[in-house]
C-alpha cells in the first residue's frame, strides 16, 4: 500500500512539473537607474510608452528609452503612482498628494497631510461622477470640486481602495477589515474581517484586536470579481463581497500574499518568495522569479507588449519571454567569419613547433634501423724499431698493420636508448600539445558565448561595454596562440 501511495505521489509531481515547464518562462534584467534603489511603484503611460515613471524614497523620476534619468519631484517616501484618463499623473507620499502634467511636467500639491510622520497617502480612485476618493493612514477623504477641498468621511486607516463603476461601489481595505461603501447612499458595512482560512479552526470575533495588519491588497478583475490578499492566503468573491471563497494556493511557496496585480485575464500575486502567475487551466501557481535573487517586490506593472516591470528594494527589473534557442539569424551572426576550430588547432601546433605523429613514428623507425647498421672501427698500427750504440742511433719504421672491426648490438632492434629518449620527448610534447589545445578551446568558445550575450537584450550599457572589452582580450589571446593567424582570418 505504501508503495502505491509513493508511486502516486511521484506521478503527480511529474505531471505538475510538466505543466510548469510548459507555462510562461521569463528571464529578468536590471534597468540601470544610477544607484537608485527601493523602488516603490512603476508605470509606463499608454500615450508615452517609451517613458517609465518610478516612485522612490527620494521622489519621482522619469526614465526615457535610452535609460536617461530625469528628476521630476522631490517628496518623502512616494508610495504609489496613478494616471487618470486625461493623462495627469498623481503621486501619493508622506507629504500628501501631488499632480504632474504629462507634457509640461507642472507639479502641484493637491492634498497636504497634517502630520507626515503619522499620515500617509496610500490609494486613490476617480468615480464616474468625477469625485476623487483618497485613502490615507488617517482616514478616507473625498473631493467633489476637483481637489479644491477635501472632506473626511471615514476614520479608518486605509490600505487600498477598489472601485466598481457598474454597481457604484467602493471597497475600502483597512487594518480592521474590508468595508463596502455605496456611493449613492453613502452607507458602508464591513464585509470581511479576520476570518481564518478553511484550513484553520474557527475563532470568535472578539479575537479581532489581536489580528490586526493581516490585510495587504485588494483588486477587481474585468468581471468585477473581488480579490483580497491577506497574510493567510488569497480570497475572492463573485457577489460583491457577500460570500468569500478561499483561493487555491497550490504552487505558492508561501500563502502570505503581499500584493495582487491583475491585467486582462492574468492574475499575479507577490509573496515573500517572489512573483507568481495563476495558471487557470492547471489551477495552480507558477513562480516567475526563479532567476532573480530574493527581493522585496513592492509593485508590478505590465506594459502593452506584455513585459513586466518589478519595483523592488534592489532596483527596477524588466522581464521578457525567454527563448530556449537562438533564432537562425542569431546563430549565423555568431559564427559569421569565424575560423573553424580545427583550423586554429593546426595553426597553434604549427606555431608552437610541435611535431606531428608521423614525424615521431619516423624517428622511432629510424632508431630501430640504426641497430641494423654495424659499428665500424678502423685502426692503423705501425712498428717503430730503435737501435742505439756508442757511435750512432738508428730507427726503423714498419711494417704498417691495418685493422677494421664491425660490431652489432642486436638488442637495439627491440629497445634502445634512442627509443627511450624519443618516448620521453613524445610524452612532453603530448602534454604541451594538450595544454595548448585546451587553452585554445576555452578561449575560442568563451568568445562565442560572449558574442551570444552581446546579441541578447539583457545587458545594460555598462555590462555591454565590459563584454566588448572582454571580447577584444580573448581575440588578443587567440592571436598570441596562433601568431596573429586568427585576426588575419576574420578580416578576410
Q: Please, could you describe this protein's structure?
A:
- The strands form 8 sheets. The protein has a 4-stranded antiparallel β-sheet with strand order 1-28-27-26, with no helix packed on it. Strands 2-3-4-5 form a 4-stranded antiparallel β-sheet, with no helix packed on it.
- Helix 2 packs across helix 5.
- It has 7 helices and 30 strands.
- The radius of gyration is 42 Å and the shape is rod-shaped.
- Mean pLDDT is about 80; it is low at about 1-25 and about 195-210.
- With about 500 residues, the protein is an alpha+beta fold.
- The longest helix is centred in the C-terminal third of the chain and has 39 residues, at about 415-455.
* Beta-strand percent range: 35-45%
Q: Please tell me the overall pLDDT.
A: 80
The total count of strands amounts to 30
> What profile does the largest beta sheet have?
4 strands, antiparallel
Short overview:
By secondary structure, the protein is an alpha+beta fold. It has helices at residues 2-22, 328-335, 341-352, 357-372, 417-455, 461-482, 485-491; strands at residues 26-31, 41-43, 52-55, 59-63, 69-74, 80-83, 89-92, 96-100, 107-112, 121-126, 132-136, 139-143, 151-154, 158-164, 169-174, 177-182, 188-192, 215-220, 226-230, 233-237, 245-246, 259-263, 266-271, 274-279, 284-287, 297-302, 308-312, 315-321, 375-388, 393-407.
SSE inventory with pairings:
Blueprint: H1 2-22, E1 26-31, E2 41-43, E3 52-55, E4 59-63, E5 69-74, E6 80-83, E7 89-92, E8 96-100, E9 107-112, E10 121-126, E11 132-136, E12 139-143, E13 151-154, E14 158-164, E15 169-174, E16 177-182, E17 188-192, E18 215-220, E19 226-230, E20 233-237, E21 245-246, E22 259-263, E23 266-271, E24 274-279, E25 284-287, E26 297-302, E27 308-312, E28 315-321, H2 328-335, H3 341-352, H4 357-372, E29 375-388, E30 393-407, H5 417-455, H6 461-482, H7 485-491
Antiparallel strand pairs: 1-28, 2-3, 3-4, 4-5, 6-7, 7-8, 8-9, 10-11, 11-12, 12-13, 14-15, 15-16, 16-17, 18-19, 19-20, 20-21, 22-23, 23-24, 24-25, 26-27, 27-28, 29-30
Amino acid at each position: 500500500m505504501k508503495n502505491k501511495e509513493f508511486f502516486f505521489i511521484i506521478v503527480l509531481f511529474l505531471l505538475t512539473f510538466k505543466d510548469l515547464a510548459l507555462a510562461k518562462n521569463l528571464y529578468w534584467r536590471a534597468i540601470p537607474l544610477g544607484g537608485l534603489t527601493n523602488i516603490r511603484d512603476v508605470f509606463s503611460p499608454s500615450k508615452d510608452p517609451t517613458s517609465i515613471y518610478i516612485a522612490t524614497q527620494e521622489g519621482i523620476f522619469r526614465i526615457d528609452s535610452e535609460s536617461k534619468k530625469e528628476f521630476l519631484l522631490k517628496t518623502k517616501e512616494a508610495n504609489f503612482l496613478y494616471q487618470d484618463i486625461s493623462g495627469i499623473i498623481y503621486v501619493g507620499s508622506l507629504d500628501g498628494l501631488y499632480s504632474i502634467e504629462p507634457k509640461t511636467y507642472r507639479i502641484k500639491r493637491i492634498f497636504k497631510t497634517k502630520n507626515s510622520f503619522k499620515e500617509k497617502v496610500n490609494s486613490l480612485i476617480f468615480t464616474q461622477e468625477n469625485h476623487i476618493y483618497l485613502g490615507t493612514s488617517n482616514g478616507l477623504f473625498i473631493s467633489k470640486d476637483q481637489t479644491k477641498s477635501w472632506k473626511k468621511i471615514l476614520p479608518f486607516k486605509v490600505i487600498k481602495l477598489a472601485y466598481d463603476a457598474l454597481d457604484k461601489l467602493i471597497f475600502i481595505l483597512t487594518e480592521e477589515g474590508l468595508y463596502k461603501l455605496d456611493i449613492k447612499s453613502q452607507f458602508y458595512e464591513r464585509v470581511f474581517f479576520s476570518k481564518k482560512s478553511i484550513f484553520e479552526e474557527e475563532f470568535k470575533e472578539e479575537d479581532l484586536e489581536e489580528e490586526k495588519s493581516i490585510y495587504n491588497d485588494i483588486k477587481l478583475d474585468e468581471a468585477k470579481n473581488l480579490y483580497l490578499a491577506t497574510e493567510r492566503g488569497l480570497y475572492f468573491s463573485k457577489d460583491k463581497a457577500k460570500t468569500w471563497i478561499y483561493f487555491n494556493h497550490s504552487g505558492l511557496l508561501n500563502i502570505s500574499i503581499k500584493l495582487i496585480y491583475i491585467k486582462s485575464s492574468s492574475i499575479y500575486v507577490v509573496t515573500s518568495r517572489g512573483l507568481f502567475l495563476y495558471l487557470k487551466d492547471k489551477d495552480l501557481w507558477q513562480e516567475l522569479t526563479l532567476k532573480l535573487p530574493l527581493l522585496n517586490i513592492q509593485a508590478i506593472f505590465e506594459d502593452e507588449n506584455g513585459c513586466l516591470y518589478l519595483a523592488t528594494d534592489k532596483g527596477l527589473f524588466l522581464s521578457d519571454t525567454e527563448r530556449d534557442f537562438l533564432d537562425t539569424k542569431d546563430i549565423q551572426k555568431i559564427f559569421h567569419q569565424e575560423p573553424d576550430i580545427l583550423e586554429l588547432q593546426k595553426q597553434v601546433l604549427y606555431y608552437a613547433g610541435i611535431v606531428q605523429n608521423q614525424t615521431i613514428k619516423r624517428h622511432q623507425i629510424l632508431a630501430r634501423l640504426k641497430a641494423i647498421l654495424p659499428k665500424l672501427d678502423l685502426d692503423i698500427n705501425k712498428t717503430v724499431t730503435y737501435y742505439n750504440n756508442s757511435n750512432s742511433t738508428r730507427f726503423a719504421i714498419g711494417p704498417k698493420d691495418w685493422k677494421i672491426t664491425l660490431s652489432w648490438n642486436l638488442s637495439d632492434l627491440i629497445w634502445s636508448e634512442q627509443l627511450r629518449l624519443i618516448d620521453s620527448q613524445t610524452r612532453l610534447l603530448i602534454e604541451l600539445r594538450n595544454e595548448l589545445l585546451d587553452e585554445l578551446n576555452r578561449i575560442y568558445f568563451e568568445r562565442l558565448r560572449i558574442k551570444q550575450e552581446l546579441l541578447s537584450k539583457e545587458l545594460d550599457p555598462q555590462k555591454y561595454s565590459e563584454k566588448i572589452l572582454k571580447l577584444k582580450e580573448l581575440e588578443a589571446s587567440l592571436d598570441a596562440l596562433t601568431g596573429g593567424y586568427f585576426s588575419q582570418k576574420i578580416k578576410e
